[in-house]
Write a structure and sequence with these properties.
Elements: E1 4-11, H1 15-28, E2 33-37, E3 43-45, E4 48-50, H2 53-62, E5 64-69, E6 73-75, E7 100-102, H3 103-110, E8 115-121, E9 134-140, E10 150-154, E11 157-160, H4 166-183, E12 187-192, H5 200-212, E13 219-224, H6 225-234, E14 242-246, H7 248-262, E15 271-273, E16 278-281, H8 299-311, H9 315-331, H10 345-356
Parallel strand pairs: 1-2, 1-5, 5-16, 9-14, 12-13, 12-14
Antiparallel strand pairs: 3-4, 6-7, 8-9, 8-15, 10-11, 15-16
Helix pairs in contact: 1-8, 1-10, 4-5, 6-7, 8-9, 9-10
The chain binds 3-isopropylmalic acid and manganese (II) ion.
GO molecular function, one term: magnesium ion binding
Cofactor: Mn(2+); Mg(2+)
EC number: 1.1.1.41
Amino acid sequence: NGKYTVTLIPGDGIGPEISQSVKDIYSAANVPIQWEEVSVTPILKGGKTVIPDAAIQSVKKNTVALKGKSPHLFSAVSNRLTSSIRIRPARNTNVVGKGHVSLNLTLRRTFNLFANVRPCASIKGFKTAYDDVNTVLIRENTEGEYSGIEHEVVDGVVQSIKLITWDASERVARYAFHYAQASGRKRVTAVHKANIMKMSDGMFLSACREVSKEFPDVVYDEDLLDRVCLKVVTNPQPYSDRVMVMPNLYGDILSDMCAGLIGGLGLTPSGNIGRDASIFEAVHGSAPDIAGKGLANPTALLLSSLMMLRHMNLNEYADKIEKAALTTIAEGKSITGDLGGKASTREYTDAIIQKLL
Ligand code: IPM
Ligand code: MN
């Protein structure tokens, strides 16, 4: 029927409500997509806690997924993470969180979603300290401190390993340069702490430098994470011409900081990009306090879905929906509580739909 099938993972908390809002807006805009809804809520299978196979197969088949809010942690006492290096945990270990695995991380690993793209652009009508923020951060998404290799050396001494590989560094660097070229950004800045992590961040930088040689038309430079934090909050404008690329944990933290500059995680999209599949998701929490009340703000998920449409080369639909959403926010009449308005999710969604018709 000429439609693309996309996996939709509504998730829990406000996930189903904000997913519904996106679905309604897409129908109104006649986006040629049909949704295949799956649950990623872990189930017990053969003594292990796993993501339901239907969800895995759906993402594999469709190669593109949109994800609302998944449950954060699941107990995976008998699971082993996919790290190639395994260190046997010491006995009597009693480290908080042991045996719990983040579902987000599991999805990123399962599909090898190696680049996490997080743009932050000022939203007109939503007043913050700056009105000219336009950063793009690309975060390595499979390793670093997120490798899940932790153990207790002896009582009272624990180790969490930061694993950096040349291949993953090179892969995310290449993605960042391609992204810069495709988006018309002139510069790639590798963000690091190689002054301290001489080997791991040092190698990350070497990989970035190597890759930069393949892109003579893109300026390449490097900057320290702490300096970047200071500079971005002092004056974000110089960062609007470039893409920043960095190891996993730095990207996790710096992306929240950039999100704060434009109004928070309710307004920022993200995309987890892999070779065989990509998952676009809102980074904010499941907001259990307002879940089910029809008050949630679907903007982050909607903007994530627009990244997805552009990823699928459905730019005209993305542009049209983006304009409708941003105009609705700029007008300030039908916006949700977190944006300073009084509208319900339904009213906000309908206001966007009105602009599409
Ligand atoms: C994010 C989140 C995740 C992360 C958590 C939920 C595992 O904070 O997507 O930024 O730390 O990567
Ligand atoms: Mn985060």
